[in-house]
Amino acid sequence: LAKTTQPISMDSYEGQEVNITCSHNNIATNDYITWYQQFPSQGPRFIIQGYKTKVTNEVASLFIPADRKSSTLSLPRVSLSDTAVYYCLVGGYNQGGKLIFGQGTELSVKP
Amino acid sequence: DAGVIQSPRHEVTEMGQEVTLRCKPISGHDYLFWYRQTMMRGLELLIYFNNNVPIDDSGMPEDRFSAKMPNASFSTLKIQPSEPRDSAVYFCASSSQLAEAYEQYFGPGTRLTVT
To answer: Phi and psi (nearest 5°) for A80?
Structure first.
């Protein structure tokens, strides 16, 4: 499974757009890129998943360049409730369901 | 659906005692995962099952840990004997290979404290 690298922490203010970039230089052809969010005392929660280009849902956008060696999670107009740890994961459907969580990015949103 | 259900939510036990953690996956899901989370080591995958069969247990720390899935709606993670270093939050998650997005649904976790 490809190793991922992302910033340990980030600070932001309410109403700002937050972009968290993850590098995954060894991504395999059949790997998907998935982001999870974890609040304190809760289990991680799926945010978004993509393979290439751009994916958008009601929560976030995911930008993936053509070489797929990195990805950027974009959170528009964050609020205090977006304070959480964000994990970038790389894996594929044929991996048998196995995902390896890295250390994640601790996002702190301030008023 | 109620989501992934774990019990107990909190467990405090003494070193040397047996601990059993329980998980009920989302109905219809064919994958089940057990994770452990600590401040030092982060979120670690311990073992996962596909259609009730263990597929990869390489993350299980040692022989004191064992996991079973006797049917599609129930799994247990057992620690015997427990040690203080086993103190952590244990999460169970489930997923379906038929889902449009490859998404794991996590339970609320069991906070284990071994004294």
So the answer is: -55, -35
